[in-house]
Design goal:
The complex is a heterotrimer of chains A (574), B (275) and C (230).
Chain A (H helix, E strand, L loop, with lengths): L1 H6 L6 H4 L3 H34 L9 H17 L8 H11 L7 H14 L7 H18 L4 H20 L2 H13 L4 H22 L14 H34 L4 H18 L8 H9 L6 H20 L7 H22 L8 H17 L2 H12 L5 H18 L7 H5 L9 H7 L2 H4 L7 E2 L4 H10 L4 E5 L6 E6 H4 L14 H4 L13 H11 L3 E6 L2 E7 H16 L2
Parallel strand pairs in A: 1-2
Antiparallel strand pairs in A: 2-3, 4-5
Helix pairs in contact in A: 3-6, 3-7, 3-8, 3-10, 4-6, 4-12, 6-7, 7-8, 8-9, 8-10, 9-10, 9-17, 11-14, 11-15, 11-16, 11-18, 12-14, 13-15, 13-16, 14-15, 15-16, 16-17, 16-18, 17-18, 20-26
Chain B lengths: L3 E5 L4 H17 L2 E5 L5 E5 L4 E5 L8 H14 L12 E3 L2 E4 L5 E4 L8 H4 L5 H9 L4 E3 L9 E5 L4 H17 L3 E6 L5 H10 L3 H7 E7 L4 H4 L7 E6 L5 H17 L4 E4 L8
Parallel strand pairs in B: 1-2, 1-7, 3-6, 7-8, 9-10, 9-12, 10-11, 12-13
Antiparallel strand pairs in B: 3-4, 5-6, 8-13
Chain C lengths: L1 E3 H8 L3 H10 L4 E4 L2 E4 L1 H10 L7 H5 L11 H8 L1 E5 L4 H11 L5 H17 L3 E3 L2 E2 L15 E7 L15 E6 L3 H16 L1 H8 L4 H18 L3
Parallel strand pairs in C: 4-7, 6-8
Antiparallel strand pairs in C: 1-3, 2-3, 5-6, 7-8
Helix pairs in contact in C: 1-2, 5-10, 6-7
The chains are: A mainly alpha (574), B alpha/beta (275), C alpha/beta (230).
């Protein structure tokens, strides 16, 4: 039994004790493969569902299909799996920030099924975010199985996410960069190796089962200098579209939240609208990858007005799907809207300056994709690597970098936090390691507690107090009730100093009369940052900590500096 | 610093019984109750190596307007100052995070199922997971409020059982009630178990505080349980470690739990106590 | 190496909860199972050094400064210094030189050095406390030449003018030699309290022999402790 037990706890094996990198790499392979499998499963089921429902699109009631899918997915999440839907990627980042990457087991499969229902029936959402969530949950639970600590678990969560993205796009670098840029937020050597291995594992699995194909066929583009200049304009347009999309989604979410109706009904309602839009313009339904292929190849339906309308329609469809309770991500819609934006820009250019020999519109479609992804997610590296890998074309790299960088920079000025991180930043849940917010969250009042203040009773006279003063090391003395032991107030030596050497009053003054009753106190479970703010506002250097009416210790800025430095050194010196 | 007991308040007559039982435990052991009145049916508890989602029965949300008042009334009747827990962080808008650094937690036999199952001896899987991951002992209350006048510790010889003994000893010291030990002999004889306690350095405590030590080596386990006093607080350690042992642990716990209706205090494998 | 959690916390001079949290977060190379932890001593030392954290194994922290925890008493100091009578001299410097030469356990150069520093202190302000008692002492505590503090009691042949506060000539000197400022203050305040007692000063004037003097001090000190003034 002992051997069996030992197998479950590899982190305690002596070979891994000093350096757990090898252990993480080995487990990363497992995690990468599992999450790759999950991603593939979703991909295949989406294709299957799409084909199965295809012949039904001709009927007049076809607009109800997305409604039914969205409603089913909402019911599945709410009643079946009982998973109060957090929003996928932000939930992963929240858990990584606060709880060392602990994710519920049910998240590993629930999102896949629900998003399959939503997207397969025509909802305008992306399968990437659910797959990232599943991969992350798989990584987290495998870490739990092997009883690993927080740091190792976070790495494995990253491995899961990377494996999933790499598998779904057949793009290992994009998976690695996405994880490190968006989910983990820190580029540390300890993390990158296992995550890279997991990306490779996921990609390899996908190639094994699906063959080594890039997502979009490679088309050669000949880019001239004038095109590169035009890219800046494209970047601006993409930035604008990103911001518009973000705001639209938030507004829609708020509107849907204000409506009181059962969740499945709301989802169905949103699905209906999507279905109706889809009847007029079928390009907005589903993830839309085949349409992207058309756009790159230059065979998309012609007409400037048409594409402009398509952009708006797709944005609306995405907002209605996701805002009203459908399950999915915004990655794929970003790609579609991005390509459409690229097309709009190109066709507008052709109209305004027809004499210039612009590059084929497919190129702008690619650049538009990158522009929108880097704008929405504010992750330019992910966008660059993703587009390069899924289109197989390295020659667009120059304008690609330009568009991504400019788009991100512009979006950042308008929306300081990306779509995923916005809510987290607002609630103060984005805690990257080695930052001030993280250190303050990790420290707790009980770790800062100093217990060397001597307590006095309120019925003591000054003479007794002076005797105690001789043995003390601090300038503050908490006063406790002589019968109940409750905290009553504080004696500050500064106030007493002028009178300490006047023997005449030694027996005439009770501590009860001179103590400060209105002193601000701290609770044991208060936030350290909140306590510091109070100290700043009221100009205090130390405060007493009172728990359940009894004095337990002091917190002071002096000790705080010492602990803060230690914590920061340990956190940043991994 | 005062020790805290986490209690999820259900604003129904059945919930009142459970709450009164918690309050009795607190007043006997000098622990402070922290009450959570749920506003959502689910919440998450993030432990060191596990995250447990608790899905509460709908009945936990009855009468939100009167819940706090009722709770305060019951607390004041026991002479305890009301202390409520309001969650600060949310994983999702309807999914609060509850902190896990309490010293005790009170659960009814099963948190998530119908009230009818409470009487039938069923430890829900959630409660089991809490016991496995938590650093605090879990108090499983009896279906109706009844006082306890002695402490019965089930000693099985393993390390967890020693922890359970120390826990029972602490409670006995705080409340001043006597301790009885119960051992079902599985290997060796009575001496083996005595030696186990002595090896843990508890020989003196064994001699001074334990009133009676009952050893059982024949008959069905359930029949032996008749000897447990009906008005005792039962303390035992959970043996959960590996997968296989989990399976075994579930069965033994279920057997005890479905046969006697005493209040039970279960110390999980992560619980450590210093005397 | 296997230790308990709070022992390791003591070695690192950290609160137990911080150490526990670092183990859970994987920031410190220590493995935990229950309340026992295991770690590699070399590895942990390197880890602590790279982060500027103090780390001392229990064997080293064990020998704490328990030795000098007990406060020095007047009696032991006086017994070490001894009682000396018949010092020759007509003014303060001569008496001080005599006193310095009587200090037991000091070699000649050390006595010379002591005399110099006594003069320095005397030059700042007189050490005559009044009522005919003086408490000369070196300007800074003798940390290198002295192992334990001592009070050398000296009676000059005839009273000498020390330019004391009350201008009375001094008939007894308590040469106060301490190893640290803390001990110096401690002994000085005790002595000063004793001298406040006029009856005691009168007793001193009678130039009692060593054993009676010491037993008188024992009595005074126990009275001081009982009244909790010091």
């Amino acid at each position: 039994m002992k051997l069996f037990k030992l197998w479950r706890y590899p982190s305690s094996w002596s070979v891994f004790r000093s350096d757990d990198r090898l252990l993480l790499i080995l487990i990363a392979v497992i995690v990468g493969s599992c999450s790759g499998l999950a991603a593939l499963a979703l991909n295949r089921s989406l294709i299957a569902m799409f084909e199965w429902l295809h012949h039904l699109r001709g009927y007049w009631w076809a607009f109800l299909i997305p409604a039914a899918g969205a409603a089913l997915s909402a019911v599945f999440l709410e009643k079946f799996v009982k998973e109060a839907a957090g929003h996928g990627v932000p939930e992963v980042i929240y858990s990584v920030s606060r709880y060392g990457g602990l994710l519920r087991m049910r998240s590993s499969f629930s999102r896949i099924i629900s998003s399959c229902l939503t997207i397969g029936s025509g909802g305008s959402a992306g399968p990437e975010a659910p797959v990232v969530m599943s991969g992350a949950a798989i990584g987290s639970n495998i870490a739990r199985f092997f009883a690993l600590n927080d740091r190792q678990r976070v790495t494995l969560v990253g491995c899961g996410a990377a494996g999933a993205i790499s598998s779904i796009f057949n793009a290992p670098i994009a998976g690695l960069v996405f994880t490190v840029e968006v989910i983990l937020g820190e580029w540390s050597a300890v993390n990158i190796i296992p995550i890279a291995i997991a990306s490779v594992a996921g990609t390899e699995l996908s190639r094994l089962l699906q063959g080594n194909q890039i997502a979009f066929e490679h088309v050669r583009f000949h880019i001239a200098f004038i095109d590169i200049v035009a890219c800046i304009g494209l970047a601006v347009l993409c930035a604008g579209t990103s911001v518009a999309l973000t705001r639209l989604l938030k507004r829609m979410g708020r509107t849907a939240g204000a409506v009181t109706a059962p969740l499945w009904l709301k989802a169905a309602g949103g699905g209906c609208v999507v279905g109706l839009i889809g009847m007029v313009m079928p390009e907005v339904l589903g993830e839309g990858y085949h349409y992207i292929q058309d756009m790159i190849g230059g065979t998309f339906s012609t007409g400037l007005g048409f594409v402009a309308l398509a952009v708006i329609a797709k944005m609306a469809a995405t907002a209605f799907t996701l805002g009203w309770g459908g399950s999915g991500g915004i990655f794929a819609p970003c790609l579609v809207i991005g390509s459409l934006t690229g097309l709009v820009f190109h066709r507008a250019l052709v109209v305004i300056w027809p004499q210039v020999d612009w590059v084929a519109e497919g190129c702008f479609a690619l650049l538009g994709m990158a522009g929108l992804v880097s704008g929405m997610l504010q992750a330019p590296l992910t966008a660059i690597f993703l587009v390069v890998e899924i289109s197989g074309g390295y020659e667009v790299i120059l304008p690609l970098i330009l568009v991504s960088a400019v788009s991100t920079a512009l979006c950042h000025t308008l929306e300081p936090a990306s779509y995923y991180l916005k809510e987290l930043v607002e609630r103060g849940h984005l805690l990257r390691p080695g930052t001030d917010a993280r250190v303050l969250t990790d420290l707790s009042i009980s770790e800062l507690l100093e217990t060397d203040c001597i307590c006095v009773r309120q019925d003591m006279v000054l003479r007794d107090f002076i005797r105690i003063l001789k043995q003390s090391h601090r300038n503050h003395f908490p006063v406790e009730d002589s019968q109940t032991g409750r905290f009553l107030g504080m004696i500050h030596l500064d106030d007493l100093r002028p009178h300490l050497f006047n023997p005449a009053i030694y027996d005439a003054v009770f501590l009860d009369q001179i103590m400060d009753r209105s002193v601000l106190t701290v609770n044991l479970d208060d936030d350290v940052s909140e306590v510091l703010r109070q100290m700043d506002v009221y100009n205090l250097f130390s405060m007493p900590v009172v728990s359940n009416g009894k004095y337990v210790g002091m917190v002071s800025k002096a000790t705080f500096l010492d602990k803060y430095r230690k914590e920061l050194m340990v956190q940043s010196n991994q | 610093m005062n020790k805290q007991l986490f209690h999820i308040f259900r604003n129904t007559p059945l919930g009142r019984e459970t709450f009164l039982q918690s309050l009795y435990f607190c007043s006997m052991t000098g622990v402070v109750p922290v009450v959570y009145i749920p506003e959502h049916t689910k919440f998450l508890m993030y432990f060191e190596n596990d995250v447990v989602q608790i899905d509460l029965d709908e009945s936990y949300l009855t009468g939100p307007e009167t819940a706090e008042r009722h709770a305060v009334e019951l607390l004041e009747a026991s002479g305890i100052k009301p202390l409520f827990l309001r969650p600060k962080h949310f994983t999702a808008s309807t999914l609060p995070d509850i902190k896990t650094d309490f010293d005790f937690m009170c659960c009814p036999r099963s948190i998530s199922d119908l009230s009818s199952k409470i009487g039938l001896g069923y430890i829900g899987p959630r409660v089991r997971r809490i016991v496995q991951s938590a650093r605090f002992p879990v108090l499983l209350t009896s279906p109706v409020y009844k006082t306890w006048n002695s402490i019965t510790i089930f000693f099985g010889g393993a390390q967890n059982a020693v922890n359970a003994f120390k826990l029972g000893l602490r409670i006995s010291r705080k409340s001043g009630l006597p301790i009885d030990l119960f051992t079902r002999i599985e290997s060796g004889n009575a001496e083996t178990y005595r030696k186990a306690l002595e090896k843990a350095g508890l020989k003196k405590e064994l001699a001074e505080n334990v009133r009676d030590w009952h050893f059982f080596d024949e008959g069905r386990f359930e029949d032996n349980l008749y000897e447990v006093p009906h008005d005792a607080l039962v303390v035992l350690g959970a043996y959960g470690h590996g997968l296989i042992r989990d399976f075994v642990f579930g069965n033994k716990m279920e057997r005890i739990q479905s046969t006697i209706s005493n209040n039970m205090l279960i110390a999980g494998p992560k619980y450590t106590v210093n005397l | 190496m296997k230790l308990e959690l709070d022992e390791i916390a003591r070695c690192l001079n950290l609160p137990t909860s911080t150490l526990d949290r670092w183990i859970r977060q994987g920031r410190i190379p220590v493995q935990k199972s229950g309340a026992n932890c295991s770690f590699d001593a070399q590895l942990l030392k390197r880890w602590a050094d790279s982060r500027n954290l103090p780390f001392a194994l229990p064997a080293e922290t064990g020998k704490s400064t328990a030795a000098d925890k007990a406060p020095e008493t007047l009696l032991t100091a006086m017994q070490r210094g001894g009682l000396h009578t018949g010092l020759a001299g007509t003014d303060a410097p001569m008496i001080l030189r005599e006193a310095a030469s009587r200090v037991p356990g000091f070699a000649a150069p050390e006595k010379e050095e002591l005399y110099e520093t006594l003069l320095e202190r005397e030059a700042l302000t007189s050490t005559g406390m009044g009522k005919g008692v003086a408490i000369p002492h070196p300007r800074t505590p003798l940390t290198t030449t002295l192992e334990k503090p001592m009070i050398v009691t000296c009676y000059p042949q005839s009273p000498v003018d020390f330019k004391a506060i009350d201008a009375r000539p001094v008939f007894v000197l308590f040469l106060l030699l301490s190893t640290s400022v803390k001990i110096h203050l401690h002994l000085l305040s005790k002595l000063a309290f004793c001298i406040r007692d006029n009856e005691f000063v009168g007793f001193l004037k009678t130039a009692p022999p060593a054993d009676r003097l010491f037993s008188k001090f024992i009595e005074l000190e126990s009275r001081l402790e009982k009244s909790e003034i010091l």
